[in-house]
Amino acid sequence: MFFGAPESITIQSELAAMRAELAAIRSVQQESWVTQQRATQIRAVVQDVLADSATRESFRTDGAQCGYDHGAFIRSSDGCWTFKIGIMDQTRFVFNSASNQVGDDNKWGMETHRINITFSGTLVDPSISWMLLGAYNSQADRFITVPNELRPLYAWVRKDFGNGLTGTVGLQNVPWDIESEFFGSSRITAGEYSIFNYRFGAGKETGISARYQCDDWRVIAGTFSQLNETTDSWDSTSNLSYAVAMRAEAKLGADWSQLEWQSSLPHSTPGAVFGFGTVWSSGRAQNPESPPTPSAQGFTTDVRATLSGTTLIGQFALMRDPAGLPQLAWASGVNMQGSTFLTDNFQVFGEGSWMDSADVPWIAQCGMNFYFSKREVKLTTRVIVPFGSGEINGTRKLAGGLGLADSGNNASLIVQLQLSF
Q: β-strands 242-253, 271-281: how paired?
């Protein structure tokens, strides 16, 4: 027995070694199985993520674009869906000299005169466009009766039917005078609605209109709610009337796109536009208020000549119940204005407006503009002089928008910075 002991020890050692090797093999196999299972799970997670990503990608049109073009925009590759936002800010300093005022005759101050926030784009199809413009005014003026609130100034949808024919539904410019073609006041030379438009303008109303435009002429006509009366809705006590309006223009020379601004730029193509507008409004069928609601009717005619940086405008209007007349009656008026660029970025302008039957028949203004970054930054300095000390306001409050006192005016100095982006 003693002679077999070494052999027994050797066998035991070999068995221990075999057991250790077997345990190591089992451990490796177990780890390999766990690794394979983990890899299978990871592959499944990756496949789910890729599938979800592909699903999300289907909601975004390939080739969609975003950028800045006179406003920030997002646009699908086919142009069917677009969204654009733009902001226009007018900050001004006003110094007004008047007589017989409550307190000091000379008053001045700074104000955020006007802020426009514009949303626009296309939907479903490139031929269907839309616009929503919210306006804030620090002063009640020709179009905004309640100051210091954000109110809609435009809200419309437009369909382009091709061959120059378009239709528009919603809150829009009433086709009437030259400024019916401009959105707000940012594209007007003086940085403000003209004196003529404050007195004789037809405003902005909810309605339906159609436009036809070709190379040499265009016409727009529509039916609207009561002119110069902004209302939130109809009800059983407010019997709103209706109105029809039309404007026709014929041009020589300059392209229509060049005429989207009131004054032409240097080196632009010379041209001339002859315009005619007419409105008819029935007034309220029932009106318990006093004085009665204005019932705008009449016609206007105008000519605008652009001479490579110089613009000349002449206008005439005969209108019943215009906004610039204190009493409801027929009135006529003329307007003459001109502007010219002395350099590529420096412009001077002047305007004289006359209205019969008004307390202050003549109102004139002159000034200058400095343009920076093309037309996105505009610094305007102007002096406005009423030739008479009577009441400036008519059936609508005009003085605040123009930068004048209600009455007793001598003159006003206005310095305004306009930013459009």
A: antiparallel
